[in-house]
Amino acid sequence: MIRGLLLDFYGTVVEDDDAVMLAIAARVAAGAGGDVTAADVLSAWERQYAAVAEGPFFRTLRESAALSLATVMSAVGCPGDPAEFGAAQFTGPVPALRPGTAEFLSRVRLPICVVSDADHEDLAEAIAHHGLTVDAVVCSSQVGAYKPAPVMFERGLAALGLAAHEALHVGDSLRTDVAGARAAGIRTAWVNRRGLPAGAGAAATHVVGDLSELLAHLPD
Length: 220
Prior knowledge:
Elements: E1 4-7, H1 18-32, H2 38-53, H3 61-76, H4 82-86, H5 88-91, H6 101-107, E2 112-116, H7 120-129, E3 136-139, H8 140-143, H9 150-160, E4 167-171, H10 174-183, E5 187-191, E6 206-208, H11 211-214
Parallel strand pairs: 1-2, 1-4, 2-3, 4-5, 5-6
Helix pairs in contact: 1-2, 2-3
């Protein structure tokens, strides 16, 4: 029996910042000149960000994003201040709620702990902006680790007073959400927001397009 939910936030509850990231990457590509494309920059930035964030020393999301963008700008030959280029990632409008989120939160009767890789101040602002109510929040900047680190899921379980078999973790990332939660012994629901082939989510307990679809799999 599922007695509580661990819920990813960006890309699951609210829209992700894909468009903002692509716009930053396009600006870097334009500054670099030559044959560098926005897609090239974005791909390199994502790889470098993962290397920084998963390195031996914890850095906040803001620190990881800035350091990784600086490395990519240097590599592609784009002059300028990386902090100024990347500012839009954190100073733009709060992302909108994803389709199905409002219905889900109005109908679900289970306790919810948000488990997010976001920095605390950004996560708190987004939750307050949308007037959302959850029972607990666990974020990387407080824990000092990122999903799929087991400690993130352990903190979420502890916040709700649940054992692993009593929880369902819900998120949009196969690597950090699904694989991370499964490694912690937690059942998972993959929010397939990009409409990827169904087989991609074979490791998840449930595959849904948005949170409202998850209601059919939860106790009333």
